[in-house]
Write a structure and sequence with these properties.
The protein has 268 residues and is α+β, with helices and mostly antiparallel strands. It contains ten helices and six strands; from the N terminus they run αββαβαααααβαβααβ. A hairpin with a 5-residue loop joins strand 1 (18-24) and strand 2.
Length: 268
């Protein structure tokens, strides 16, 4: 919701208009966007809206230099209580392991497995794009592995492979390897965990993503390690053990009062 609202607001500013944005929380949160005919400074991020996309390929360098990082930081922090934390050294290695654990869980737990594979349009084949759900072509699965990956949508097969650690291998390919090989890894955080902070995180994500796209970078948002820790037992998703591990590790990495919302990898 926050991302869609911010994209609309940026588009309005890109066309020399103005937009007022109001968020209303509650059981069914909504956002109201009011467009005005007013002279404002043009938002150059509007030029990147049509080129913004997710990209699951392996990235190479060069990554964003210090000047570009500051530019992306500036765009992200325009949204109150939001900022980008660039991950380096030991902290980066710890977050990479969290991504691996969370991505592995998506193949290990039946409900998460079902949610993942039901979102993939295998009926389209491995070359066609899709305007709804996920096209297999967007997954960047290597050609020799495609028949096996497609077979894994059947839970009994996935369950059997998990007995020999298959979920760990899939999590390594889906999460750890892309994180290790990317030139830049960051996490979008908020200074709070209310509905408004979640809405703001969506807005900040779009601004960060557009700024990176405007500079010619590829971006992949990686949500598993931040989303799964917020599930409850009623969700019947991630195990309580993993949720506790993710919460503890993220608190150690970021400190108290700082909420991780999205891991982002960036490169060429």
């Amino acid at each position: 919701l926050g991302g869609a609202a911010e994209s609309s607001r940026v588009a309005a500013a890109g066309n020399c208009g103005a937009a007022g944005l109001v968020f209303e929380g509650g059981p069914q949160p909504t956002a109201t966007l009011t467009l005005l005919n007013a002279a404002v400074d043009r938002d150059d991020l509007a030029d990147a809206i049509q080129t913004r996309h997710t990209n699951r390929r392996m990235y190479h360098g060069p990554g964003p230099d210090e000047r570009l990082r500051k530019s992306i930081d500036q765009q992200t922090s325009q949204i109150p209580d939001c900022r980008l934390v660039w991950l380096e050294g030991p902290l980066r290695r710890r977050v990479q392991m969290l991504v691996w654990a969370a991505e592995s869980e998506r193949f290990k737990r039946r409900s998460l497995h079902q949610e993942l594979f039901e979102s993939i349009r295998f009926d389209l084949g491995w070359k066609a794009p899709s305007t709804e759900a996920l096209a297999p072509s967007s997954l960047e699965v290597e050609a020799p592995m495609r028949p096996l990956f497609q077979a894994l949508r059947r839970w009994p097969i996935m369950q059997g492979i998990n007995w020999v650690g298959g979920h760990r291998a899939l999590g390594l390919r889906a999460g750890l390897m892309p994180c290790i090989r990317t030139p830049a890894l960051a996490v979008l955080v908020t200074l709070g965990s209310s509905d408004l902070h979640a809405f703001s995180a969506g807005r900040a994500l779009i601004r960060c993503w557009l700024a990176a796209s405007f500079a010619g970078l590829s971006v992949q948002p990686m949500a598993a390690s931040t989303v799964l820790m917020r599930q409850s037992d009623a969700d019947r998703g991630a195990s309580s053990r993993l949720r506790k591990h993710l919460r503890t590790e993220w608190r150690d990495v970021l400190g108290d009062g700082v909420e991780p919302m999205m891991v982002l990898r960036m490169g060429r």
